[in-house]
Amino acid sequence: MNRKAFFAMLARDAHVARRNVVALLFQTFLQPLMFVFIFGRVMVGSGYMPPTYKSLLLPGIIAICMVGTGIWAVAMPLIAEFQFTREIEDRLLAPMNISWVAIEKVVAGTLQSLAAGFMVIPAAWLLLRPGVELNVPHPFLFAGVAILVALFSATGGLALGCSVPQNNIGLMFSLVVAPMIFFGCTYYPWSALNKFPVMQKAVLVNPLVYASEGLRGTMVPQFPHLSLLAVVCALVFFDVLLLTTGLRKFYGKAVS
Amino acid sequence: MLAGIRTRELRKVYESAPPMAAGAGGLTFTTPKAGSKGKQPKPQVVALDGISLDIAPGEIFCLLGPNGAGKSTTVGVLTTRVQPTSGQAFIGEHDVWKEQVAVKHLIGVVAQRPNLDFSLTAREILTFHGAYFGLSSHERAKRAEALLERFKLTDRADQMVRGFSGGMMQRLSIARAMMHDPQVLFLDEPSAGLDPQTRLLLWEIVREYNQSGKTILLTTHNMEEADALCQRLAIIDHGRVIALGTPRELKASVPGGFLLRLRFGVHSPDLLQRLQSLPGVREVQAKDGTGADVYADRGGSLVAEVANLASAAGVELHDVHISEPSLENLFLHHTGRSLRE
Questions:
Q1: Do B66 and B341 touch, CB atoms closer than 8 A?
Q2: How many CB atoms lie within 10 A of CB A30?
Q3: Best residue in B77, B101, B112, B129 to probe A by mutation, most A CBs within 10 Å?
Q4: Which residues of B touch A82 (CB under 8 A)?
Q5: B223 and B270 in one domain?
Q6: Among all residues of chain B, which has the CA nearest to that of A93?
Q7: Are B176 and B317 contained in the same domain?
Q8: FRET pair for A221, CA 20 to 30 Å: which of A35, A78, B117, B133?
């Protein structure tokens, strides 16, 4: 690896993110915070949802925010840069192995995803308060899970960004991202699916389930959640799988 | 360190549509070869079919050929973006495929299609490119300023490139390729879409860059550009080198130099045979039924004699087109097709 080239690319991504910060903030936070407001505030305030739902909802919203940000931050530029603007070519010709260009994208996406996660906590907390009972007994475990979730989002973005043609971006969101969110145990705990045993098993192929349950288990462990060991193992598995798939597809697109 | 370019029997066969790395928009697929029983035959295209070149350090070398000839694929192989099916390519002493990072230090590349970073300003594009190559921030700023000035982009330096015209983008692409002062500069169709004034500026800059000992490989299907700029050139077609030498040598290698393209009212093999016997005529090629390409060492003065012969044979002469010695004639002579076809 050429450290100078790698960090110059990270600096480039940070520079572009800074330049687009307002649009980025709206894109990252508007939808989840509206969801928090309607479900956590309006529905709970009017008695349709129990007050405890606020605490249950928050980790799921953080998971959506982190995963959405990471996928968007990596996949969208890759789709455009490979197929439309071709601007990635300049970075592919930088004096380092081509795979490091993809890894740089994953690092940048992971950092953006973590930033989104940590920024949505106080924003959602402000919207939901009072009544949110966050309880982080193991901060290092929480940080570890958050990093694995962010990494999953960025590696997922890499794999998707190198697989989806430009004219199918809409389809990517309606066929992959939307079902992943709705069947990702974000708005409800996995245990709530016990009335639907087939679905409860089927959703286990969805990595977002482990992201939501992992954050739930480390932030609001008073609610039922999947075993944290299983969560960590599953997230590591998906991170490695998506990274290797993404790197292979990236290489296939970069070199013919 | 001065660096040249060498290739040995480069072959590249695509088994699916070439992706962007090849930059080979002009390639067309050949008829699918018969596959094994029960399997869908894969469409194959032979983009390079044994290209061997020796380009000396400090040379301006041109690959001339029509769209789809294999020019961009050759550049793709030499710039680490296309894996050759067989054969070898070297930049300086480095094997392009095995020592990619060392090669990338030595080369600058201007792609056929603009690939500027749309999220950055013109100046940032140059400075970030410099940063990828490890230049210090002071050096980056200094070089970017000088290149913006040289390419007449100073007044737009701090604007986003999204709104730039095609010519400005092309100038900036070339400036970016020169930013890290590469030993070998690849320019893939650099003057496509440029106005004549910008083209002249580009030629001037290319010559100037070459004077500092840098090797330049450019591809073009513009004969005027090849003639004006290159010290040596290779004419390629269907992935093969069909002629190689200085523009002067190559032009001299066309029989006679002049080309008369004739069209008659009817096909007359007898007339074509008589044309061959006219003084100064070197070669006669029958074309498209009623036409003939006559290679000769004189042009206009031959027309009256051709007309007389045709009249004597009772054949009407419909059209005559005379071309002076040119690379276009050379290409036509070797392939029977125009460079523009």
A1: yes
A2: 10
A3: B101
A4: 20
A5: no
A6: B104
A7: no
A8: A35
